[in-house]
Structures are given as structure tokens and as C-alpha cells.
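Please, structure for the following, as C-alpha cells.
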Amino acid sequence: MPRPAFRHIALPSQVPYVDRMPPEARATRRRLRACHECDWLMALPPLHSGEQAVCPRCGHAEVRRHRYPAQRSLALAIAALASLAIAAAFPFLAFSVRGVGNRIELTQTATDLIGHHAPLVAIVVLLTILVLPTLYLLAVVWLQIGLLSGHPLPASRSAARALAHLQPWMMADVFLIGTLVSLIKIVGLAQIELGPAFWAFGAFAVLLLATTQSVDRDWLWFALAGEPPAPEGSQTGRPAAPQGLTGCHTCGLVGRLDAGGHGQCQRCGEPLHARRPHSLQRTWALLAAAAVLYIPANVYPIMTTVSLGRASPSTIVGGIVELIEMGSLPVALVILVASVIVPIGKLLALAWLCLMAPRAHALKAPVRTRLYRITEFIGRWSMVDIFVVAILVALIRAGNLMAVEPGPAAVAFGSVVVLTMLAAMTFDPRLIWDGTTSTADEEAPHERHAP
């Protein structure tokens, strides 16, 4: 029998991994950025792996350079998706008391709320711990596979835009803390069993956080669409808005605005504004709505425990007192901070920032900016109480012996958390710096022009 003939195919000597060529190695012109927090226009310096470019005016980290950004984020995203698949396929938690027990899966923490007339809370839980993280990870995988192959896949720019919008609403880590708080609350009343999904979800929460930290947005957009030339006449070492410029909040590109202070990003297509339209008015409206809803969130019970036919409603503050009486002081402190101190502090902080925004004061601008960063960061952690309710409602199902029902305060408090997060997003921190003359303004050179 004749031997089959094989055709020799010449392979390229090097696979075109685009992440081997960072923007610094490929760009032939200076790359400008306008700080999203103080509007300072600066030229990005050459960065090596592990380095970051920080705004000289307010200290905001503009760009972080990672080593092997495509391979790293792709591997982490795939591992996170695998962990989530395991968490969704196996039992999550189980409990038993006096021979009566219940076993739940991860998805039941959301679906069981629908049967208890809390569909809005169920939707929030489902979106924040499952749907949005899955979409984010799939977008990362889609983008990095295309970039590693040297040919971006269809809709890559839309996927890249989605990353920035999805990230603030993913709360797997907060849900994990809520699970631990729930277990501590009932560990003395029943026997608890941690299923395989619990450990898988813990791994998923860690991997999801690592994935978000590994995504190099500057490299990603440069690899997808390059970088158009900087607007003519732009001067670094000065605020961008007086020059008719602004930085895109999605891809970072500096763009020219029209006479009305609006425009469109040349690279990602997002709308551009010198300042977020009606920022203070929208923030005030959201804060007012959150403040109104915070009253029923504390007056009405957030959940009701039914034991031997006797109902015991529990408010947020009442639950904290019960934890203290049980001797769980650390857990009570966590709930106190997340459900009382953080929401009230966030309302007061954002209200103060809105009041002080029109008052230019260079010495207070850095302090107010740091306050804004803290406010924006801590807001999502108030969801701990909502996740505790979702877990206990699904898990504590022992017939007439013991059960937990969601209370009307759950919807109100969940709305407070969402509204305060939206308020922080609509507030434009660049308003803090408008009209100020900081040390960076005086020391930074003003004569440098972009080519």
C-alpha cells in the first residue's frame, strides 16, 4: 500500500500575540489622558508590567499595566466560569433541626423569593450574583480569544464597552459575606452542612475579583482600535474642559467637544460631555428618593421568623440587637456598619459633596475627592443584609417547625442601596475641582503641546 502523501504547511515563526506589544511599544505619538476625577490633562509615560500612571493632581490611578494581560484575564475568566458552573449544579447549603431539614441550590436564593411575593428582590439577587458576572466573564473570554488570535471577533467593541458598565453591579464577594453572616445567625439553632457549591462559589468570588483586576483597559482598547491622534492644540498640565476636551469614561481616549460641551468618542462611540449632564440635580433626586425609602426600610420588618406557628418580625436594628444578645458581636458589627452606618454615611457624604461642589476651594478638593472615592467603594456592601434575607428565606424551610419570610423592608432597603449607588455614579467628581488652583496647577508645565 502506498504511503499517504502529506503536504508541508509553512507556519509563521511567531504567533501574533498582540499583548506582547504594549501601547508604549506601538504608539509613535504621545498618548493623552484626562483624569476622570479632576479633569487634569496629562501625557501617559512609558509603563512596564506592574506599574501604573497616577494623576499628579488628585492621585487617581489612570492606567495599570499588567503582564500578559490577555492570557491572564482569559485564564482567570475561564476558571471563574467553571467554578460558577459547579456552584450552580451542586447543592449549596443544607440545614436540619429535630430531624426536619432542607437543602438548597444557589439559584434558589433568588427563585424562592418570587414565591414569597418579593420578585424585585429576587431579580436584584439573580442579576448581581449570577447573570451580570456571567455576562462579564463571557465578554472577557470573547475579547481575549479574538485578540490572542490576532483578529478581534465581531461585536468586540460592544463587549469592551459592556465591561465598564457591568463591573460595579457584580456582587459575588458581597453575597459570600452574606452567606457567612447567615450561617453564623443560625448555627446555634440547627445543624448546617456546606455543599460543594458553597466552596465552588467561594472560588468563583475570588476568581471574579481577580479577573476584574487583571483586565488592562488601556491595553485592551489600544489592541482593539489603536489610538487616534490627540486633538490639535491640546496642552498637558492643565484641565481639559477649558480647552474643549474631555476623556472618555469607557476607553480613556481624549476627544474634542463641540460648542455645547458634547461629543462622541472616536474610538468606542460613547457620548462625551464636559461634565455629566445635570449631575447635581440627578444626584439630589436619587438621594431624596433613597432618604425617603430608608425610613420604611428601618421601620418595617426586613424578615419574619416563624417558629412553631409563632411569627417574630425582625427589623434591621432588631436583628443587630439579637446578634449582640446571642454573643455574635463581630457579626452584629458587620451588619451595623453595612446596613446602618454605610447607608446613612453615604447619604450625608453625597449630600455634602453636592452642597460643596459649587464652592471652589483648592485645599479641600483632595479631601472631598477621597471622600467621594470611599463613598463610591463602600456603597455595594450594604447589600449584605439583602443577601442574608435571600439565603435564610430559601434555606430555613422546616414546615411549621421553623421558616423565614421576607418582610416589606427588604424591598425598601434594596432600593436604598441601588439608589445610593446610582447617586454616586451620577455625581461628577470633576465638579469638585472646577475653579480651583491646586499645587499641581502651579507646578505642572503648561507649555507642552500634543503633536
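The mean pLDDT is 85. DSSP finds 16 helices and 15 strands in the chain.
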